[in-house]
Specification:
The chain is an alpha/beta fold and 396 residues long. 31% of the residues lie in helices and 20% in strands. It has 2 domains: 186 residues, Rossmann fold (3-Layer(aba) Sandwich); 170 residues, Rossmann fold (3-Layer(aba) Sandwich). α1 packs parallel to α8. The radius of gyration is 22 Å and the shape is elongated. Bound molecules: 6-O-phosphono-beta-D-fructofuranose (F6P).
């Protein structure tokens, strides 16, 4: 009897999605499964949705984005779970592997009550998983889903752009606010430390413009130019995003974006000693989701994909193929859905914030514990972006 697995990619794309698909395709072939790839996320399993037969040769693990394309389709909101289940059964799919972030997984977990489902995570925001409990001593091996595939590649890009933009900031004595994605969580913005960001502002910590202005003025006096990484999800003291689009996606999220400009304007007003032309901003936008995966991301994503298929083979459904830090490095690890997703009272998935131990809110910087978190991904912070200053002599 032919065994058939379905796979889909939902939510925002990442550079490592094809790597996960590659792992799934390789393992499926080895275990004798036929693999059906649904196009455009959950939209692909609905009536009128399309699908392809996938084999490993079709998938390039070094190419970013997703061969299967993606969408933010909320089957729950549209009461289409039943239709999806009927179609999956019609196509004689034995098990479905959704690859996604919190929204895809919350739809998937509702679907899993009616259909055999095993999950793989992805999101550049790195907000699917559970931190080592705050009341316990920090133990990196207790972080459930150490990183979400896709995050390391995006973090690498954020660090790269932050590093590169320094040459122009230095040349023109500018303060440049670089805006990273991360609607609710600051993981990506924190990775700017690896590009030598002078200050970092994450959404989990309340933005205080006066304090920020004070620190900027002081640091600018010492350095003559600054790179400040800010998360797109920065909100004001009332908890409202500094900027968001009026348009909501099917999960009800407004798209943030543009807060770097707002913060730059706040600073222009609060630091009159600096000309307003000193302040500039740069939104990284989709540039941080694009291109090829970095090797550690690609290789871990392939392994996570393979593990999801072997879980189906072993009957371990309603599980998530996660990444855990072990004595051996970063390895895929199968956990129950409930061990990976914390839920609110109404069943919605609670996203993982940046562990507060990884951020030094007083100094707007990564903490030593944060560097410990990134070490297995990037090693130590390179020092080469620090030394652009000159000892200048005044002409008398
Ligand atoms: O996947 C999450 C995310 O990367 C957020 O950080 C960001 O706000 C969002 O995607 C934007 O994606 P899109 O414009 O594709 O909806």
């Amino acid at each position: 009897m032919s065994k058939r697995i379905g796979v889909l990619t939902g939510g925002g794309d990442t550079p490592a999605l094809n790597a996960t698909l590659k792992g799934i395709a390789l393992e499926a072939e080895e275990l004798g499964y036929e693999l059906i790839g649904f196009m455009e996320g959950w939209a692909g399993v609905l009536t009128g949705g399309s699908y392809v037969r996938l084999n490993p040769d079709m998938v390039d693990e070094n190419r970013g984005g997703t061969l299967l394309q993606s969408s933010r389709t909320n089957l729950r909101a549209s009461n289409k779970l039943g239709e999806a289940v009927d179609n999956l059964k019609k196509l004689k799919i034995d098990a479905l592997i959704p690859i996604g972030g919190d929204d895809t997984l919350s739809v998937g977990s509702a679907l899993s009550e009616h259909f055999t489902t095993t999950f793989v995570t992805k999101t550049i925001d790195n907000d699917v998983g559970i931190n080592c409990p705050a009341e316990e001593a920090l133990d990196y091996t207790k972080i459930v889903n150490y990183f979400c595939p896709g995050f390391p590649s995006a973090a690498h890009l954020v660090a790269k752009y932050v590093h590169d933009i320094r040459t122009t900031a230095y040349s023109h004595n500018r303060v440049i606010f670089v805006e990273a994605m991360g609607r609710y969580a600051g993981w990506l913005t924190l990775s700017a430390a690896y590009g030598g960001a002078d200050l970092i502002l994450i959404p989990e910590v309340t933005y205080n413009p006066d304090k920020m202005a004070e620190v900027i003025e002081k640091q600018y006096r010492d350095k003559g130019h600054l790179i400040i990484a800010v998360s797109e999800g920065i909100s004001d003291a009332n908890g409202d995003l500094l900027t968001e689009s009026a348009e909501l996606d099917s999960f009800g999220h407004a798209r943030p974006g543009g807060c770097s400009e707002v913060i730059a304007d706040h600073m222009k007003n609060r630091i009159p000693s600096l000309s307003s032309s000193v302040f500039r901003h740069q939104v990284l936008g989709y540039m941080q989701r694009c291109g090829s995966p970095i090797p550690i991301d690609r290789d871990t994503a392939i392994k996570a994909g393979r593990l999801a298929v072997s879980a189906v083979e072993n009957g371990q459904v309603n599980h998530v193929s996660t990444i855990m830090r072990t004595g051996l490095g970063l390895e895929p690890h199968l956990l129950n859905l409930d061990q990976v997703l914390k839920r609110g009272e109404d069943g919605h998935v609670i996203r993982r914030d940046t562990d507060s131990r990884f951020y030094d809110a007083e100094n707007f910087s990564i903490s030593p514990a944060g560097i410990g978190y990134f070490r297995p991904i990037f090693g130590d912070i390179p020092r080469d972006h620090m030394g652009l200053g000159l000892d200048k002599t005044t002409i008398e």
